[in-house]
Specification:
The protein is of the alpha/beta class and about 325 residues long. It is built from 9 helices and 10 strands. Helix 1 packs across helix 9 and helix 2 crosses helix 9. The longest helix is centred in the C-terminal third of the chain and has 28 residues. InterPro entries: AB_hydrolase_fold, UCP031982_abhydr.
Length: about 325
């Protein structure tokens, strides 16, 4: 009966036919950290329209009232020097399917603020930023009454994938990690000299399922991931890039104590996990927009977004139903 109930819920959400609403907001500074620039996508009953936000081209309706109740929540964490809109196509796909999706720009490691991008503090604060985002969404947000707190998922790309592994109860070991790291960067110098101080890492058991795309892998041994038990969908590009070596994500897949749903994307480099770029974005940062000859990023994202949605549907609805039955 339980499987039939979950299947029915999946069918209801699959046929819901929502559109994506979008709303920008700021999470105030508090004892946990500075103000966070945030965005939320929600199920909306109004047809989306093209929106230009800086170099991004979005398909959503601004400030649209959220439709429905008991919505699963997915939080997003961008990569090195990224921003809250980096995975906008995935967020739109999830909101179209009935999810609430929230993202922040990580202070000190964003496109507009790279002031601490190579300091140890950024790696420590990233998981705490996501915890603060979840706290806000469940405590003070306009959608608090519409979120199912039992059904929270996480998506992270690159350093965002690192962030997710920490939140899932991983404990990084930079000293032994296989990460290209030049000595002129402060964190690299500390690691090389064995002077990186012990860190307090933020874990969050409220997150029930994780999707990680080409994560920066500071988890080189079994003990560093020994306590990770949540279901994971793990994506690896064939060629890697931006500090992620091609061999590290497959190695991580073998280390994880619970076998992940693993996908190797042939012909892809690291930035293929970002949506196809607008002409304006390609002119500003071409390195994140150019793929290998013949690689079709748009076609890949149709498949990628579909598979991520299917994973979150299965895992988060199962988590919600299982907790309700207790």
């Amino acid at each position: 009966m339980r499987n039939l109930f979950v299947a029915t819920l999946l069918s209801m959400i699959a046929s819901s036919g929502y559109a994506a609403g979008i709303r920008f907001f700021v999470i105030p500074a508090d004892a946990g950290g500075p103000a966070l620039q945030a965005v939320v996508w929600t199920p909306c009953a109004v047809a989306p329209e093209p929106i230009k936000v800086g170099p991004y081209r979005l398909q959503a309706t601004k400030d649209c009232p959220t439709v429905g109740d008991a919505r699963p929540l997915v939080v997003l964490s961008h990569g090195h020097g990224g921003a809250r809109l980096d995975q906008h196509d995935l967020a739109e796909t999830l909101a179209d399917a009935g999810f609430i999706v929230a993202a922040i720009s990580h202070p000190g490691d964003t496109a507009t603020d790279m002031s601490r991008t190579n300091e140890a503090s950024v790696f420590v604060e990233r998981p705490n930023d996501i915890k603060r985002l979840i706290d806000y969404m469940l405590g003070s947000s306009a959608d608090v009454a519409r979120i199912d707190a039992r059904a929270i998922g996480f998506f992270g790309f690159s350093r965002g994938g690192f962030t997710g592994l920490v939140l899932a109860d991983g404990v990084p070991d930079f000293q032994h990690a296989d990460i290209p790291c030049p000595d002129e960067l402060p964190i690299c110098k500390l690691v090389r000299e064995g002077k990186l101080p012990p860190q307090q890492w933020t874990h969050d058991a409220r997150i029930k399922a994780f999707v990680l795309a080409d994560p920066l892998d500071a988890f080189p041994t079994a003990p560093t991931v020994a306590h990770i038990r949540a279901p994971i969908q793990l994506w690896a590009s064939e060629y890697g890039g931006d500090g992620v070596l091609p061999e590290t994500t497959p190695a991580l897949a073998k280390l994880l104590p619970v076998q992940p749903e693993y996908h190797l994307v042939e012909g892809a480099a690291h930035f293929a996990f970002l949506p196809p770029c607008s002409d304006e974005l390609a002119a500003i940062v071409p390195r994140i927009c150019v793929d290998g000859q013949g690689y079709d990023r748009a076609a890949f994202h149709n498949e990628f977004n579909r598979d991520v949605l299917a994973f979150f549907r299965a895992e988060l609805l199962q988590a919600s139903n299982s907790n309700a039955a207790r």
